[in-house]
Amino acid sequence: MERIRCREGVIALEASIVLTLFMFLILLLYSFISFFQVTGMTQYAVLKTVASMSLDPYEMEALQGSGSVNELLTTYGLEQSNAGNGFVSNDKWYEKNESGDYEENSEFFRCLKQRYIAYLTSGGTNSDADQMLKSARVLDGIEGINFSESKIENGDLYVTINYKIKLLFNYEPFGIGDITVKQSSCSSIWGL
């Protein structure tokens, strides 16, 4: 009789250890799935921003801001047609230097952030992007996205964003804390 009680105690102890480890691994897996979901969402916005902004100089210089590029892309379902939501800009965020290469000016980072928000939120506002990123556990929301490494160099547009993500459930497996993410994309600028 005592031998049966001893086995029941061992089984209960083993079950509690295994269930605890199982729950920890499930939560860790869920955290990493949500991490990759957020990085995928932000990388998509970076790629679309680069592709869109690389067409702006051609639109403004060769087509004199006629909107033809946007109309063409909209026809084939590649671009958003609503220019008022940040997908298109008539601002000259680029300048040509003496050698004829493009370089960023003071409008560059404003336009970059506006275009990024448009693609991230499908035409939403700054507050929509902030709310979306905060719910995705990006630290400081849209203000936590750092565009400062973005540049124009040798006729290429480089967009780089840096941000930090906090894992779900406020636990830090293996002491990793907040995860710093750096994402970038590059495209040649369509010039004259």
Provide a descriptive summary of the structure in words.
With 192 residues, the protein is of the alpha+beta class. The protein is 48% helix and 15% strand. It has 5 helices and 5 strands; from the N terminus they run H-H-H-E-E-H-H-E-E-E. It has helices at residues 2-53, 56-61, 68-75, 106-121, 126-135; strands spanning 94-96, 102-104, 151-153, 156-165, 179-188. A hairpin with a 5-residue loop joins strand 1 (94-96) and strand 2 (102-104). The longest helix is centred in the first third of the chain and has 52 residues, at 2-53.
Which characteristics define this entry?
192 residues; alpha+beta; 3-stranded antiparallel beta sheet; 5 helices; 5 strands
The percentage helix is: 40-55%
Give the topology string: H per helix, E per strand: HHHEEHHEEE
Number of strands: 5
User: How many DSSP H or I helices?
Assistant: 5
Structural class: alpha+beta
* Weakly predicted, low-confidence segments: none
The gyration radius over C-alpha positions equals 24 Å
The major β-sheet equals: 3 strands, antiparallel
Tell me the distance between the termini. Answer: 91 Å
What's the mean pLDDT score? 80
Strand composition percent: 15-25%
Order of strands across the biggest sheet? 3-4-5
- Write down the overall geometry: elongated
